[in-house]
Amino acid sequence: MNIYLDHAATTGLSDSMKQYLTSVLDLWGNPSSLYSISDKPRQIISDARQSVAKFINADPKDIYFTPSGSGSNTLAVKGLTSENPSKNHYEVFYSPTAHKSMLKACEACIYHTALKVNSAGEIDCVYLDDVLTRHNALKPLVCIEAGNSEIGTINDVVNIGSIVHGHNGILAVDATGYIPSCKVNMKQWENYVDLLTFSGHKLHALKGIGVLWKCKDIDLKPLIYGSQEQSLIGGTENVLGIASLGKAVEDYNYSSGAPNNRDYIYHYIVNHIPDSYLVGASIESGKRLPHNLYICFKGVEGESLMILLDLNGIQVSTGSACNSRNRSASATLSAIGMDEKDTHSCIRLTFSGRETPEELDYVCDILKQCVESLRWLNTK
Amino acid sequence: MTGKVQKPCKICGKMFTPCADCENDKTMFRWKRVACSPECAKKYFARIASSRQLNPENKK
User: Fold this and answer.
1) Edge-first strand listing for the sheet containing A346-350
2) Which one of A109, A182, A322, A364 is the catalytic residue?
3) Residue A225 pairs with which residues in a beta bridge?
4) What's the pTM value of the predicted model, to 2 decimals?
5) Separation in Å, CA of A293 to nearest CA in chain B
6) Residue A314 and residue A316: Cα distance in Å, rounded?
7) Please, which residues bridge with residue A346 across strands?
8) Is residue B1 part of a domain?
9) Contact between residue A243 and residue A48 where contact means Cβ atoms under 8 Å apart
10) Does A223 lie at the interface with B, CB-CB under 8 angstroms?
């Protein structure tokens, strides 16, 4: 049996997607050219933009295709801030649990301040309000994630947006971890969010495509110079990637969004595998991504558990996907104040919601055996 | 690289440098103490699993 439980890292392509993309391969014209073989590629991009806009209930004119979710985050931050102190108008306040692309873009800004999070990873809104009140020399740019891909905690975007706008600031939200299992409706968020980003390959599209939604009042400097994407992201368009994203969001189904599979595994763990605990927002709080389970198994190395599970046909991750090869504890786990010893004893399981009961029982059984085996190895 | 400890992988024998954290942590098993790569680590785990099945005493 092979069970993939790392959907927060990436997702596969459906058979219909593969068939569709094969047909797109024949449409190789440059979308920027004016002759007939470019008509269809140009139409594909336009149609995909419409589909993505409909997916998040937004205006297609506010949708920009980027090379990746990381590219979108970088554009959102660097597009506003300047490296020249005399020309810089923003102070950046950022979630310390944000994705590395957002984190590093913010830390590279001249004026930047990390926000505080509680032990579940939620942004401390009292501190946010206080720090925005005290730091009022420059316009604030606040950068957060809607849902943390690693530990699964959901932030209160509306409340945070209210606070930020109350201080005449701009709110940038990375929705990459949130949007695969929680629908985004920009009509509900547009009064609170100014920039929204997400990644295509978490939504069953190809890798190498991301989206930035931008409020009309925001002017950004280009990420890559050129004429494409309203001159914000130059370079001949990734037609195949854009096509895959357009189709992916058309076909996207939130019906498997219920947390049943996550909860089934969670309850098995707490009842049958001792010395283990959930990291991030509690199941009962309703502030947890419905397909995310981030568990600490005390005394067990997360990487060893990941390898042993893979040996048994189950794929999970430790930390976020980008940090998997990096030995140090993730910034997120450090930010929530986790015991340093425990930071190396965690795995993340992210479900599709379509796992079968047999698969879930297999996961429970193997997980228990693997944890016991690794704890036994500690005694040798 | 002066002073970096090298040891042989228990599976393929290749000399590798385990991370200092792994070597110094005596509280739990760490795969990088015994194997040079995840592929070798899998083989190590497979051997352990097989050995535990052959000797039920090891499961206690």
Assistant:
1) A276-278, A292-297, A346-350
2) A322
3) none
4) 0.93
5) 23
6) 7
7) A296
8) no
9) yes
10) no
CA-derived radius of gyration, chain A? 21
Q: Around Cβ A327, how many Cβ atoms within 10 Å?
A: 12
CA end-to-end distance (rounded Å), chain A: 30
- B34, closest residue in chain A (CA to CA): A304
| CB neighbour list of residue A49: distance below 8 Å, 6 or more residues apart | A60, A63, A65, A246
Tell whether A310 is within 8 A of chain B (Cβ).
yes
Render pLDDT for A283-319 as a digit per residue (tens, 0 to 9).
Answer: 999 999 999 999 999 999 999 999 999 999 999 998 6
Q: What is the pLDDT of residue A256?
A: 80
- For the question of residue A296 being annotated catalytic, the response is no
Phi and psi based region of residue A279 (left: phi greater than 0; alpha: psi -120 to 50; beta: remaining): beta
What range does the domain containing B44 cover?
A: 7-59
* CATH of segment(s) A15-251: 3.40.640.10
- Interface check A376 vs B, CB under 8 A: yes
The ranges assigned to domains in chain A are 3-10+255-378, 15-251
Residue A348 vs residues A30, A133, A292, A296: alpha-carbon distances, Å: 41, 37, 7, 9
Interface test with A, best of B34, B45, B58 (most A CBs within 10 A): B45
State the best of B25, B31, B33 to mutate against chain A, taking most chain A CBs within 10 Å: B31
Q: Which chain B residues are within 8 Å of A380, Cβ to Cβ? A: 29
* CATH number of the structural domain A3-10+255-378: 3.90.1150.10
pLDDT tens digits along A203-254? 999 999 999 999 999 999 998 999 999 999 999 999 999 999 999 999 999 9
